[in-house]
Structures are given as structure tokens and as C-alpha cells.
Design goal:
Length: about 250
């Protein structure tokens, strides 16, 4: 593997430019960064540029690394990823990282859209109404996860035994998983990455690895997604995600 040649090729594909040369105060660090990410990791595994960049956006949203989020939003547009796909990738992080961090990422994303002459707001992709949102979300959840959450939290006091599982269904599945712009297979894979990047959510990582498999992702695709995310979330979180999912992902 020629890391330098691969790096030049991939940076050109994604950003329309050349890797950092010997200029600047930290050229040596940038050589390591670019040759590892764009010269090695991007050439390991089956995922294409589109999925890799959506994975990158997910981790950058989790990490709140907004300058890099802007850069990779531009890269997404450069390789032909639609603004709606980009937006949906950022939006669906909200149930896992909270609304304030997601709003920060949305602001950075929209800044890039405006710079590129993309008219806002983008087309609406909601497919549910207030009248049917919960039932449609529950149907999606039950298809992959059954009634596990509802049954697990029956011990909660008072109204919370019903409210907590209902909030999870309503927010994660009704409000986001039902939206157009990304299919269920991609959403589940990006959810695995999001949870892995958060750290400390290994129970949920394992559960969503199982969900991602049921949604049509292969074991290799899930491992590839986590390995790609490692560049932005670090090796310990990669190993945590792999270790908690070994039974599901091993050959």
C-alpha cells in the first residue's frame, strides 16, 4: 500500500485539493494524520466515500469539533452527497447527544450550505403526523428491537415506567427513523457509530449492532464503519465497541 499516493488520490476526491505539504507550523503532524486517514483507513474495507463521510459527520457532531464538521460538510457536497442526506445524518444524533449539541452542529452545517448557495430551509422529510407518529415509530422499533425497552423498565416508579420507553420510541423512532433522506440500513449503521463515539454506551452499542445487522448491514460493514470512525473518536472507543459486540461480529 502506497500511503502517500493513496492520500493524494483520496484528498483530491473528497476535497478537490492536495494534502498538506511541508508548509505550516505542524506539517509533520498533518502528514501523519492525512496519510493514516486518507492513505490507509479509507482504503481498508468495503464502504464507499459517501458512507465514510456520513460516518465522519456523525462522529464530528458527537465530538462537537465544528471546524472539521464544516470541512467535511464541504467534502460531502463535493462528492455529490445531497444536502438532505447531510442534514438527516446530523439531525438523527439528537436523541443520543441531546438537542444543544445537535443545534451547534446544525448551525455549522447550515453555514456551509449558505456559503455554497444552497437555499434554506431544505425540503421537509417528515412522514408522520401528530396523530400517527407514535404508532409508526413503534412499528419500526418493534420490527428490529421488539418490546425489549418497555419490558426492561417496568420497575420505574409511577408514570415513568410507561413514559420513559414511550419517550424513547417517540423521539428515536417516531421523530427521526421515520424521516426520508436516509434509509433504515444507513440510519442503524450511523447510530452504531454515534453510540460508539459517545463512549460509555457499550450496552447500547451492542444492542444497535444487533439492530444494524437486522436492518441489512453486514458484519464487515459494521466493523469497517467503526474502524473508520476510530480516526475521529480514538482507538479506545473503537476497541470498546468491538469488544462489547464480539459475539455478534465475529466470523
Amino acid at each position: 500500500m502506497d500511503r502517500v499516493k493513496n492520500c493524494e488520490e483520496k484528498v483530491g476526491e473528497l476535497f478537490g485539493g492536495k494534502p498538506v505539504g511541508d508548509e505550516g507550523s505542524d506539517a509533520g503532524f498533518m502528514h501523519v494524520l492525512q496519510r493514516f486517514i486518507f492513505g490507509e483507513v479509507c482504503y481498508t474495507g468495503s464502504l464507499d466515500n459517501r458512507m465514510r463521510e456520513l460516518i465522519t459527520l456523525t462522529v464530528l457532531t458527537v465530538n462537537q469539533t465544528l471546524p472539521q464538521l464544516k470541512s467535511h460538510t464541504s467534502a460531502c457536497l463535493h462528492i455529490g452527497i445531497s444536502p438532505v442526506e447531510i442534514r438527516e445524518t446530523v439531525y438523527q444524533c439528537a436523541p443520543f447527544i441531546g438537542f444543544p449539541k445537535t443545534l451547534n452542529a446544525i448551525a455549522a452545517m447550515n453555514e456551509v450550505f449558505s456559503t455554497n448557495g444552497i437555499e434554506l430551509p431544505l425540503d421537509d422529510t417528515e412522514t408522520v403526523t401528530e396523530a400517527d407518529r407514535y404508532e409508526k415509530g413503534l412499528a419500526l422499533q418493534a420490527l428490529i428491537y421488539g418490546n425489549e425497552i418497555k419490558e426492561r423498565y417496568t420497575w420505574l416508579p409511577g408514570e415513568f415506567a410507561e413514559a420513559v420507553p414511550k419517550f424513547l420510541t417517540g423521539l428515536c423512532f417516531s421523530d427521526f427513523m421515520t424521516r426520508k433522506g436516509l434509509n433504515g440500513k444507513d440510519r442503524e449503521l450511523l447510530t452504531v457509530v454515534c453510540l460508539a463515539a459517545i463512549g460509555g454506551a457499550e450496552v447500547q452499542v451492542r444492542s444497535h449492532v444487533e439492530g444494524a445487522l437486522k436492518a441489512g448491514n453486514t458484519k464487515e460493514e459494521i466493523v469497517c464503519a467503526l474502524v473508520h470512525a476510530m480516526c475521529y473518536m480514538g482507538i479506545p472507543r473503537l476497541f470498546n465497541a468491538l469488544n462489547c459486540s464480539e459475539e455478534l461480529l465475529s466470523e
